[in-house]
Every structure is written in structure tokens, then in C-alpha cells.
Design a protein that fits this description.
9-stranded mixed sheet; TIM Barrel; binds SN-glycerol-3-phosphate; 235 residues; 8 helices; binds calcium ion; alpha/beta; 9 strands
């Protein structure tokens, strides 16, 4: 089976990351799933923002955790790419889009953060209220363990960036190595979630190793590379 394609921050090679436009394009391109990072606002809303602050991705400045949803909503998250206005995306917005389209949703909680375990608590509550095929992910083993205790039925991915241990802890269902770790460790990757995979050689490596979920910034292009690998030119 070829890997399922997961649009990393939406089709973020082509649209501003974590915007509705990025996710709509990913779904239109036929992505099997979408990935997002979530953070808690000062007033307890989960919003789709990667960095601690909104400085890089919006026309505003400041830490997500220090701002209310209303304050964050005044900013444009499309301006930096000159792509036209794009409002802040909440996790509820994304859950509604995903529920309508039927793709999988991979939600990453970022740590360390000011509100610590409250992030996983809010995430478990929201996922219980929305009928979506979701997976929870984090680089923080404590966050994954906490979430698994709150929502045992939701699959979890423990992400690895520096070191990829041979065994997973019992609260993690899947390993989530960066593709740089896959390159270094021969024979591994079967059943894993691998990020962030945009180069043709890495895409081919993931397919060869039996990676289950491949996170890419450009689902349509990655699908093309996979198809070309599966049907090499005939002499
Ligand atoms: O999909 C996992 C990957 O997104 C982790 O890295 O920094 O892009 O969130 P980052
Ligand atoms: Ca992420």
C-alpha cells in the first residue's frame, strides 16, 4: 500500500499555512489527511498556529497564549504571502471542514506551553464533540501520555526529531520520525507517520519502507512523484 498523504499545515507550499484556503486546497488535491498545530488562547480556545507568537505568519505581533480569540481574530494570516486576507483558523473551524470532507485529521499539540495539560484536555473535549477520524500527536511524551488517558480511543503519534528509539511507550500507537531519521536508520519506517516529506528521493524512500502516513507541504506534487515511482517507464 502506498503511504496516505497528509497535508502539512494544509497545502502550505501553495497557500499560507494553517489557513482555510490551505486546507481547502489540500482536500481539493485529494489529500488523505491534514495536519495542524494547535495552541490555546488566553481565553481557552484552540487555534491553528505553529509558532509561540503570530509574528511570522500574520500582520500582528505577540504570543498566542497572551491574546484572546477576539484579539487574534483582528489579524490577517494571509498577508505575509501576499495571498489576500486570511482569517485566523480555529480548531473548531478545521474540525467542521474535516467532518464535511471525510479526510483524517492529525492534531499536534506544542510543548512546552504556558497552559500545559489544559491543551490536551481541551483537545479531548473537542474531539469527543465532533465526528472526525482524528489522531493526536506531540513531541512531548508527557502530552501524549496525558491525552491517551483522557481519550483512549483516539490513536496517538509520538513524534521524534533528534532520536528515534527502537520501542514505543504503551501510550503511543504510532512512531512519528522526521524523514531525516528515516534516511539514517536502515530498514525502519513500516507503519510510521513520517514528516515532512517533499523531496522525490524521500518520497520514494517512504514508499519503499512501508511508511503509512507521509506528511507533505504539497500533496498533489507528492502524489505525482508516488505515481511515477509505482509505474516506472517501460522500455
Ligand atoms: O507533522 C509533524 C511535524 O509537523 C513536526 O514539525 O515543526 O512542522 O510542527 P513542525
Ligand atoms: Ca506540526
Amino acid at each position: 500500500m502506498p503511504p496516505e498523504l497528509v497535508a502539512h499545515r494544509g497545502a502550505s507550499a501553495l497557500r499560507p499555512e494553517h489557513t482555510l484556503a490551505a486546507y481547502e486546497l489540500a482536500i481539493a488535491q485529494g489529500a488523505d489527511g491534514v495536519e495542524c498545530d494547535v495552541r490555546l488562547t488566553r481565553d481557552g480556545h484552540l487555534v491553528c498556529v505553529h509558532d509561540r507568537t503570530i509574528d511570522r505568519t500574520s500582520d500582528g505581533r505577540g504570543a498566542v497564549s497572551a491574546m484572546s480569540l477576539e484579539e487574534l481574530s483582528r489579524h490577517d494570516f494571509g498577508a505575509k504571502l501576499g495571498d489576500g486576507p486570511a482569517p485566523l483558523l480555529t480548531l473548531v473551524d478545521l474540525l467542521e471542514l474535516v467532518a464535511d470532507s471525510g479526510v483524517r485529521l492529525f492534531v499536534e499539540t506544542k510543548h512546552p506551553v504556558r497552559y500545559r495539560g489544559e491543551v490536551e484536555r481541551r483537545l479531548a473535549e473537542l474531539l469527543a464533540r465532533h465526528r472526525v477520524d482524528a489522531l493526536m500527536m506531540s513531541f512531548s511524551p508527557a502530552a501524549v501520555r496525558r491525552f491517551k488517558a483522557l481519550a483512549p480511543a483516539v490513536p496517538t503519534v509520538l513524534l521524534f526529531g533528534r532520536y528515534w528509539p527502537q520501542r514505543l511507550p504503551p501510550f503511543a500507537d504510532l512512531a512519528g520520525p522526521g524523514v531525516h531519521l528515516l534516511r539514517r536508520q536502515a530498514g525502519r519506517g513500516g507503519g510510521a507517520y513520517c514528516w515532512t516529506v517533499d523531496e522525490p528521493a524521500d518520497i520514494a524512500l517512504c514508499a519503499e519502507r512501508g511508511v503509512r502516513f507521509l506528511a507533505t507541504n504539497n500533496p498533489a506534487q507528492t502524489r505525482g512523484v508516488l505515481a511515477a515511482n509505482l509505474t516506472p517507464d517501460q522500455p
